[in-house]
Amino acid sequence: MIISVASGKGGTGKTLVATSLAFSLKDRQPVQLLDCDVEEPNDHIFLKPVITQKEAVCIQVPKVDEDKCTHCGLCAEICAYNAIAVLPDRVMVFPELCHGCGACSYLCPEKAITEEGRETGVVEWGDAGGIDFVQGRINVGEAMAPPAIRQVRERANADGVVIIDVPPGTSCPVVEAIKGSHFCLLVTEPTPFGFNDLVLAVETVRELGIPLGVVLNRAGGEYKKVEEYCLKENIPILLTIPLDTEIARLYSKGVTLAEGMPETHEMFIGLWDEIRKIVEEDIR
Predict the structure, then answer these.
(1) Is the pLDDT at 283 greater than 80, yes or no?
(2) How far is Cα 71 from Cα 13, in angstroms, rounded to an integer?
(3) Which of 9, 144, 159, 259 has the fewest CB atoms within 10 Å, i.e. the most exposed one?
């Protein structure tokens, strides 16, 4: 089963939930954690994996043979990202803008364009105390996260539970990380910003046709719009984590909640049981 842990905004506790869920399940069944927050992966801070292997993330960018090129300009016309500029006497390629779609090489009438790999990041994997751990990381300044996310997803092990730590937000990297999941767990907080971005995240996940539930983190206080929205939309709140300075202290030290507060271990086991029940009902 593939469980995505997502959030409409950053800082809601998505990593806290993903790592604690993986930590709680590791002694019950095979668990794999995929950190797809490739712009700023930080699950390794909490799980402290021993990285044993890595591979480069590359996208294919155009390489122009000026001897064959007639400077017709077709490649520049079809490039939606302005990664190619055709001048009267040469062609300029801007690799950082290229999305690797291959349209320019495919449509070049003179077959003057080939493709070469450009490294944009890395995927690393290893063991985190019984958790099969995989993370992606894109190079500083890179604009495209989906290629690295896809490469991390390719290492998913279908034999156990796969937990995906999704990038925050609702943009293309989020969709790339979530799609194909059996369930999406949305982590939010009882604030106006948390509520606003939860609504956007729910709309995105529903568009993908994936069952979902909510974890309400830092619960407490008088702001109740998140609970009211979930009740109205028939979205189950599967777990409530209180606003607690001890949890903040553990987080600042890089300690998972399930490890630092053992009494929460069964809480995350219960979360897993609820997710499994929802997925099984959805399949039926």
Answers:
(1) no
(2) 52
(3) 159
Global pTM value: 0.91
The domain containing residue 273 runs over which residues?
2-38+145-283
Chain mean pLDDT for the chain: 94
Question: Has residue 202 been placed in a domain?
Answer: yes
| Count of domains for the chain | 2
Residues 158 and 197 in one domain: yes
Tens digits of residue pLDDT in 144-193: 999 999 999 999 988 889 999 999 999 999 999 999 999 999 999 999 99
Joined together, the tokens standing for residue 132 give: 């099969």
| Domain membership flag for residue 24 | yes
